[in-house]
Specification:
Poly(a)-polymerase, middle domain, five-stranded mixed sheet, about 40% helix, 21 helices, 4 domains, elongated, five-stranded antiparallel sheet, Alpha-Beta Plaits, alpha+beta, Beta Polymerase, domain 2, single chain
Amino acid sequence: MASKILCEICQVEVPTDAIMQQHLKGKRHQKEVDRQKLKEQNCESSIYVRGYRRGTPEEDIRELFEEQFGKVETITVLNDCHFSFVKFAEKSSALKAIETKTVMLGGQKISIRPRQVKSGVSLQDKKDLKRKHKEQMERSEKDRERREEKIHEVVMKKIFTCSDFNQQMRAIRSYLELSQEGHDLRKKVMDDLHSILVEFLPGCQVVPFGSAVSGFGVASSDLDVFLDLSDLQSHAESNQELLKKANLNFHDIPGVELNDRGVTFGSGVTLHQQIKVVDRILGKAANGVFSRPTKIASARCPVIKTSHCTSRILCDITLSNKLAVQNTRLLKLYSSISDDIITLIHVLRYWAKRQEVTGSGVTSHPRLTNYALTILIVHFMVNKYGLPSPEELSKMTDAKTLIDTWDCSLPASLPSSYTTFLPSSPWEMLRDFFQDSLAHFKNFDFGSHVVVSRTGKYANAASANLPADFKMSCLNVQDPFDLSHNITVNVNSSSLQRILKSISQAAELHSMTELNFFRNLFFKPVPATKSKQTPSPTRPLTDLTVTFDISMSIWWLPPDQLDSAFAEWCENVIRLTKRVISEVLHGEPAREEPETKRAKMSDTSSACSFTLPVALWVGRTKAMKAIEKSDDYYETELACSRAMMEVSESVLLPSPLNFHLTVTPFVLPQERGVKVSLTPFVNDGNFRAFFMFFQKFLSKIVDRCVPTQKV
């Protein structure tokens, strides 16, 4: 194999000289060359200084070096250490300081050395950093998944203690929603943040927004904050200590000045400069209260990320996202109409997170934001139940609010009469959401249409009079205030297919019992595997077991015959279940490892494992219509399978579906029957489709072929 050619400046490898020549002419290389030149120029006019006491004010260092060598442009102190880099305005000043070698400051001998040009990161170092970052991300992802599964276990236990759908939904919300203690902690974070910032930025306003405020927050919700600097003032009294506190200065930020009455901004100060000021204040003055901040200036709305040291609550601070405050007010208005709306949105957010429609994670597809999902839910309620659209809400108030030229007017509250527009229970709203979404989006042209959330309508993009900077994507949902913003612009075709598939599967669950509905609704999808050929495990994955019940009609049986009739009925059901899998679905006994292998079972044994090489449940309804029906229902199903096997290429699975079957009798005061449990060997996407088919299919065959009267 030919060796690759290394660009020592960019630390990248290319295979040929021709490609290297293209690289050398490219913008990336030229940008790196310019950066290296600038670094060398800065080093020529800079010096490395060390030896002074920790916490020495920058003003003292500046005064010393300006007095002896010339004007100082910047002083960079790393992590409050006892060394720093001093950059002079003139190269001659740096040379003069280097020749001096030492100076005295506060009784301490300070050494002066030339500042060295630091070489770039080598290619191997880049690879090592990339590998370590990937490993760290994978560990974080596994930790997150473990935490989520623990939460899910508790959620399912809460569900099992409830007797109907509405109680189950309220139990899910009760466990997931942000507690009063969580609200109190976030208020404490707000108070701490304000007390630090207002000392340097008097008159600033700290305004929370997001899920933690709108009523849809959970325990893991971070705190989103809008820092309003539009009405800055000055301290009434002079505070000389403010100049020395936290060792702060803003000499390197044009138009920004710190005096004894606070920070002042000149007329030309930009948003990014303001972000830099706030970041520096938090980094210097919030030690022990907030963690070291990280500013992300390249985001659509530049943000400063930090966390509260005591509560460990993550905090995102933005200076330009005033629209988000109105978005939060809008969602809070809708949630005030009925408590059932909050319950519905909590359940749907949890469903979307389990289905990997929303949330974070290392996946191959982008996901919806929780805000985008909530706007879609509100859009559904506006269309289905006649709730007022955001445009209608803006007409309910005389006080008009304009933010960045957008009409963001909202009334202070809504009349209680809107409660009567809604169904009587959250379960009805949940069922309507899935069924209406499936019916509407089944033949919807997503690429050329827009969900206009402001008016509660759908519109063709060509005739919708969209702003010129509105970006179309696979799914287009217009923000209710900022009409130029597509809040689902990140959704690609695979993400959209996952969303539609999850809605379709959820809509098919409405006929299930209370216990199995939410178990299947929150069934987590299979992550995509990197390798096409994955060896099949030979042990059942017990944590993925799914169940359903088949009940026996016992109302007409005399009490003295009930036990014997039930025992015979169970044997017939077990025997029929195995016949259905082996004869109708062409299943074969599956192999298990010795340590998990069960003893060989007879026809009436209640447990065994199967392998299904073909998906005879795909297209079965269509195949059934094409065959001649028999009076014997079981024979009709056999004939349907034989007809489908004639075109076996269309139903052949890419890899066999292995699962373990267990049939367990149960006895309740008013009901007897069997619990059928299926446990997959591989977390495969085909298993869920098979389970949803098999539940209805087996129940129908048992009902027709094992009538209680013949027992």
